[in-house]
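Hey Z.,

So I finally got round to the phosphoenolpyruvate thing we talked about over coffee. Here's the setup:
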Amino acid sequence: MRTPIIAGNWKMNNTIKEAIELIDGIKKNELNEEVEAVVCVPFTAIRDVKEAIKGTKIKLGAQNMHWEESGAFTGEVSPLMLNELEVEYCIVGHSERRQYFSETDETVNKKIKSALAHGIKPIVCVGETLTQREANKAEEVVKNQVVKGFEGISVEDINNIVIAYEPIWAIGTGKTASSDDANAMCAFIRETIGELYGNEKDNIRIQYGGSVKPNNIKELMGKSDIDGALVGGASLKADDFVKLINY
Ligand code: PEP
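And the result:
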């Protein structure tokens, strides 16, 4: 069975002080042991959050990484640097990075390979724009992102990858895909993984992301092909994030 995974994407929010307050707020609660909970925090807060989550089941994630280990890449952070901080997960190819920082399927592919080579589990984001959905192109776009993103990734690595289906029009907008539409796309992604990797399709975890909140998590998690959520806004409030983990 696939272990549910709820990951918070803090984006460019929380100073170190605020990060610790948020973790302290989460820690005041019992967390569902059956659910994997991850916080993907800004680079500047990783070291302090690592200390703050010690002794809890919460896992540590980053929001981006470069594929090279070192070099002349001003402003970037390498997988070795994340290894040193014991980062377990890293979001790769979030739509905001694709949109504002020119990430492409090719760079996403390099990052996935590098993350895996360094023992970091990538949370690979895919998803269509509203225009693409309205033009009935959503499946084509998402399939293309998956196929290109996974080029050259071996079947042995599939278990260490999480896919997050995030329709761009649902991120931070308060608009959620209906649970049926979200599930249909997650099932379609699973089918695509099946075409590439056979039975591993049943093992890979696929999250939904896009305005996930305490009031819609249960319905989404009840669906056959949704194994978790990648959460922006609601991961910034301790009570809400706890409710998502304890759905
Ligand atoms: C996200 O940042 O990946 C996201 C889904 O954001 P929100 O939950 O705020 O829509």
